[in-house]
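Provenance and format

Records in this collection were gathered into a single text stream. Each protein contributes a sequence line and a C-alpha cell line. The two records reproduced below are adjacent in the stream.
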Amino acid sequence: MRRAIVKNADNQRQVEAYLPDNYRVVRQCAMQTAKDPIMFIIEGEDRMGWTLDDYVIPRLASGLIFAMEVDA
C-alpha cells in the first residue's frame, strides 16, 4: 500500500478526477490556519503501469496539484 499527501486541490472531487481506479482519496486533512491549503491523503497499490511514481504524481502535477509520497 502506498500513500501520498496531496495539496493545491480545491476539493476532493478534483483530486479524484486525476486518480486511476487503483488509488483513492482516504482522508481530507484539517487546515491549521486559513493560509494553509486543504490537504488530502490518497492511497492505493501500484498495478501494471498505474504507479504512484510514474502515473499518479505526474498526472496530478499536470493539473498543478502537488503530491508527495509519505510512509504508511
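Adjacent record:
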Amino acid sequence: MPSAQSTARPATLALLVIGLATALPSRASAADYDPDKGKSEIATLEATWHDRDRDRDVPVKIYYPKSPAGNSPAGRSPVIIFSHGLGGSREGYSYLGQCWAAHGYVSVHLTHKGSDTEAITQNPQANRKQLEQEIAANPENALNRFKDVSFAIDQLNHLNKDLESPLHGSLDLEHIGMAGHSYGAGTTMVVSGELTHNGRSFADDRISCAIAMSPPQTMPSAKLDQAFADFKIPLFVMTGTKDDSPVGETKAAERRAGFDHVKDTPAFLLTFDGGDHMLFSGRPRQNKSPTDDRYHQLILQGSLAFWDAFLRRNADAKKWLEAGSFEKAVADAGKFEQRNAGHQ
C-alpha cells in the first residue's frame, strides 16, 4: 500500500505544473499578428450565387490562401464572412480580405443587393443622403442581408464538396467568423445573436465569433439587455471617438452597446482616439488622417489575434488579447477594453 507521502507527490507535482503554466507569459507576440508578415500566398475567386428560394443573386468575392493553414483540422482554413456597409459591394474592404487570407483564413465578401453600390448609383438624380436613409430604413433590405449570410454558409458547404472548386476540401466550416462595417456591422450583430428591434432572431448558430466595426444601435437603451440576452459568441467591437453615423442617428458613444450588454461570453472593445466612421472602410480619402495607417495596422493586428483566439482556439492568442499585450500595442492610439475574459 503506498504511503501518504508517495500519493501526495503526484498531486503536488501537478499543482506545481499548473502554477508554472499559469505564470508563463504568452508565447504570442506582436510579430505573430504583423499584418505585413502573412505567410500564405493568396488568390481570389469571384462568383454569383443564386438563391432559388428568394430568386435573388448574391455576388461574392473570396480571398483564400493557396496553402491552407497547417494548424487547422486536416489543414483546412477557418472561414470569415464579411458584410459591407451601405452602398458597398464585394469589392470593398480588400485590405481586410487580403490580410486575413495571407494569415490562413478564407475571407468571403458578399454583395447585398438593394443596399449595395448599384442601389445608390442607379438613380444619380436622387438626393444621395435621402436615398441612403430610405434604403437603410427599408426592412426588406435588412431581412435580405440576414438571409444572404445564412445562404452563403450553405453555399460554402456545397463549395467544400465540389471536386472542381479550388476550395474543395479546404474549408473548416466548424469555425466560421462573421464581420462587417456600419450597416454590415448591424447585419453581423443580428446573425450573431442580437434581436431585431421587433424582437425577432435571425441568429445562425454556425457562426463561432464576430467582429463588428461601427455597429449601429437600433434598440432603445432600455431594451438593450433584452436585445443581447441570447448573444452567446465572442464579440469584438471596433469604433472611434468621432464615429457618428453619416446615415441614421447612432452617435459614437452608442456603438459600444453590444460590448456593454452581452453576457457570459468574451467581449472586447477598441475605441480609436479621433477615429471616424469611414476609418474602417479602407477607401482612399482626400483628407486622410495622419493616424489612418497606424489605426489600420491595429485593426488588422487585433482582428488577427481575435480570429486566432476564437476560430483556431489558440490559447496564446487569447492570452495576448486578454493579458495586456494588445492594450500595450494600442497605447495612445485609443482605448482597449474587455469583459467576461474567463468565459469560453
